[in-house]
Design goal:
- The protein is α+β, with helices and mostly antiparallel strands.
- It contains 11 helices and 9 strands.
- β2 and β3 form a beta hairpin.
- α7 runs antiparallel to α8.
């Protein structure tokens, strides 16, 4: 049976290992804390800087396929939010194909065309974030997408920015009560911090090739969220313009979050 397959590559991992092992330990704490480990429909494999997730149960109805793709996107969204404020980025691919995983004497064995395709394709994508194979695009009904190239579409895991741009139509400021009662301030803050990191690196990253990947990514956000991105740039990425009466600093100070508690929980 073919599997829906999520391939996540943590970028710049070798530099992290060489320069700051504390950050590497924090990264593994984050990976160990992800919601994906608590979902019985999916299996997860982690090795070095790579996370693999696939559906263990076979989808039957059409909504099963949409359910699986939605959760794979949510797993990436969860990783993105937990990485907020750490300047650690990833490139991820959702595809579908052959993937086999079993154990021999507690030794994990895994292979398949989906893994090979994702591995080879991921290296050629000159951007960061989540991408979905066009063959799976019609199953992605919750998260918005934008064409990236002939094989992949970019997936926007920034659902709070989606609300700001399209539900409120980028009409600022948004009423304090609306923001406070829906907790939009709490959900949009990590997405703004992440987007600011992409923007800063698209301008200032010292390596030209890496800077180009950030630039290509930021252009996707700029195209999809034109009103919000314009205001963010004009306000130096301070979210105050969204709703001035909100205590935004309280939300900003929350990041980066500490996930060291996971060591105790997993013993």
């Amino acid at each position: 049976m073919d599997k829906y397959f999520l391939y996540i590559d943590i970028l710049g991992f070798s530099e992290l290992v060489k320069n700051d092992t504390k950050i590497v330990d924090e990264l593994y704490e984050i990976i160990a804390s992800l919601n994906v480990h608590d979902h019985n429909v999916f299996k997860t494999i982690i090795f070095s800087d790579t996370i693999l997730v696939y559906n263990d149960a076979e989808p039957i109805e059409g909504h099963d396929h949409r359910y699986i793709v939605m959760f794979l996107c949510e797993f990436v969204q969860d990783l993105q939010n937990r990485l907020t404020g750490r300047n650690i980025v990833y490139r991820a691919i959702i595809t579908k194909g052959q993937f086999i995983h079993y154990e021999i004497n507690k030794i994990p064995c895994f292979y398949g065309s989906a893994l090979i395709d994702a591995y080879n394709s991921e290296k050629g994508i000159q951007a960061i974030g989540l991408f979905i194979d066009k063959s799976c695009k019609n199953r992605c009904v919750v998260f918005k997408t934008l064409e990236f190239n002939e094989k992949y579409d970019f997936v926007f895991t920034t659902q709070a920015l989606e609300r700001v741009e399209y539900e409120y139509e980028g009409d600022f400021p948004i009423d304090y009560y609306e923001v406070d009662q829906t907790e939009l301030d709490w959900s949009v803050t990590p997405e703004i911090i992440t987007l600011e990191n992409i923007y800063r690196n698209s301008i200032n990253h010292p390596e030209i090739k890496v800077r180009a990947k950030y630039e290509n990514t930021f252009k996707l956000y700029e195209k999809h969220y034109p009103k919000t991105v314009k205001c963010l740039i004009e306000n130096n990425f301070s979210p105050t313009f969204i709703s001035p009466k909100i205590d935004w600093q309280e939300k900003i100070d929350r990041f980066p979050e500490d996930y060291s508690f996971i060591k105790t929980m997993k013993k």
